[in-house]
Structure formats: structure tokens, C-alpha cells
């Protein structure tokens, strides 16, 4: 109730009462920009974070320091311990040569012009065998992953083959194919295919069912579904299987070359090591072991590690500066 005053003709003031009407509730003020403004702000914030992460890359010197120094220190420690054991004469030098003796064996092969030929023979065999293993293991893994009957029948066999030492196949392959390249590639395939197939099976098993349903709703079936849904979604697991498959193929190749020794096949690193063994040249044996190790590390650093980082970074699983 509100009081009001009126002045009459005599100059007296009279008070009258008036009932006040209830005021309508005011609508809450909408923030500037509304919901669209909030979403735009969120997107801008995320873009700023991505830009900042991309801009805040460590300097090249710090990056080299963090990447190169730890392995170099580890190698230096191994060489120091090796040299101390050699200097202590725990074993005769013809059984346990020193690092300088092994380096001299590698240097001699380099000066003779045969070192790169030995390496290329093994690497070319390994790459060709691995490519064939991918062509066989990929469809086999997809078949096992998507067909329940096939998984029940072949899945345990693949797991068993993956745990079987590759060298166990060499005698059988020799009986089947003799001292030929087919024997070497058979051992490589039997060592690499199970790992590749199991890798893609693990990758497919980790695909969210929503992806598959969405693909079917969009009409992706058959090979189209495999190409655009299954393989891209299973790529991290598939890549892990490929990486392990290469490790198994390289190990299988060395096991085959150690035993399948024939002049018409050429000389790879495994055959080279067996030749040094027959000559009782321990410096050459250790030099070949180091070369095999370096080739395996180089393949991983030059191919698999960059590919793995690229895949993980594209899925937001790895920082841009790693």
C-alpha cells in the first residue's frame, strides 16, 4: 500500500491510500552471447592451449641433451665395464677380446669394402620377409578378429606360434626346401605372422562398439568398413603388432642365417657370424653381434618410432613436443 498526498482548495493536505499493483518478476538477463558465446569461448580456450603447446617446444639443445645424452652415457658405461673386465684378464683375450679389438674387426670389414654388403643382404631379406608377413598376417588377423568360429579355431594356435622359438622351424624348413632362400623366408614368416595377426586382433578388440554401429548406419560394410573404420580405429594396436612382428622377423632371420649357410645364398650377418665362429675369431663374432644390434635399433628409430609418435600425436595421446 502506497500513501499519496493531495492539496485541496483551502491549502490543507489530505492523505489518500492506494493499493500498489504487484510488480511482474523480471526475466533473468541472458549473458552476452548466450550459449553460443560460451561454446565459442570454450573453443577459443582449447585452441589457445593447443597453440601454446605447439609454441612451447623445448630448444634444440635441450632436446638433444634429453634424447642423446642418456643412451650415450649408457653405452659409455658398458664400454668402460667391458674394458675393465678385459684389462683384469678374467678370460684370455682370444675368448674375451677388448672393445678396441672388436672395433678393429669392424674397421677391417669396412676397409675391405664388404661390411655394407653383409648388412644389405640381411636387411633386404628381413624387409622382404616382413612385407610378405604383413600381407599374410593382416587379413588373417582381421578374419580372426571378426569371425567367432575362426577365432575359436585359430586364435589359440596363433598365440602358441608366437611363443614358439623361431629356430625350432629351421630343421623342418631345411627338410622341406633345402639350402635355399625359401627356407629363410619360411622361418621369417612363421616368426612374424603370428605377432602381426595378434596385434590387429588386439586392436580390433579395443574398438568402441559405437564406431562400428555408426559405420553401419552410414553404409560402411565389407571392405569399405575394413578400410575406413576397422583399420583406422585399430591402428595403435596394429602398429604395436607390426613393431613386434619386425622384431620377431629379424630374430627369425638371424636364426635361419646361422644354420642355412650356403655359398649360393650370399653372406648375411648370421652367416658372417657363423663363419667367424668356425674360424674361432671371437672379435669377429662380437663385432657381428654389435652390427645385428645396431641394425635392429636403427630400423626402430628411423621407421617405427616416428610412425608410432605420429599416430599417437594425431589421436591426442602424445604431446606435440615429444
Summarize the structure.
The protein is mainly alpha-helical and 322 residues long.
Write the layout of secondary structure elements.
Elements (H helix, E strand, L loop, with lengths): L1 E6 L5 E6 L15 H22 L4 H28 L11 H14 L2 H32 L1 H16 L6 H8 L3 H25 L3 H9 L5 H11 L1 H25 L9 H10 L3 H33 L8
Antiparallel strand pairs: 1-2
Helix pairs in contact: 3-12, 4-5, 4-7, 4-10, 5-7, 6-7, 7-10, 8-9, 10-11, 10-12, 11-12
Description:
The protein has 322 residues and is mostly helical. 72% of the residues lie in helices and 4% in strands. The chain has helices at residues 34-55, 60-87, 99-112, 115-146, 148-163, 170-177, 181-205, 209-217, 223-233, 235-259, 269-278, 282-314; strands at 2-7, 13-18. It has a two-stranded antiparallel sheet with strand order 1-2. α7 runs antiparallel to α10 and α11 (269-278) runs antiparallel to α12. The radius of gyration is 35 Å and the shape is globular.
Bin the strand percentage: under 5%
Cα-to-Cα separation, first versus last residue: 73 Å
- What form results from the Cα inertia axes? globular
Structural class: mainly alpha
Counting DSSP E segments of at least 2 residues, the number of strands comes to 2
Query: What is the typical, i.e. mean, pLDDT?
Result: 80
Gyration radius over CA: 35 Å
Helix content: over 70%
Q: How many helices in DSSP terms?
A: 12
Model regions low in confidence, pLDDT < 50 over at least 5 residues: 1-33, 51-55
Give, in order, the helices and strands.
EEHHHHHHHHHHHH
- Spatial order of the strands forming the largest sheet: 1-2
* Major β-sheet profile: 2 strands, antiparallel
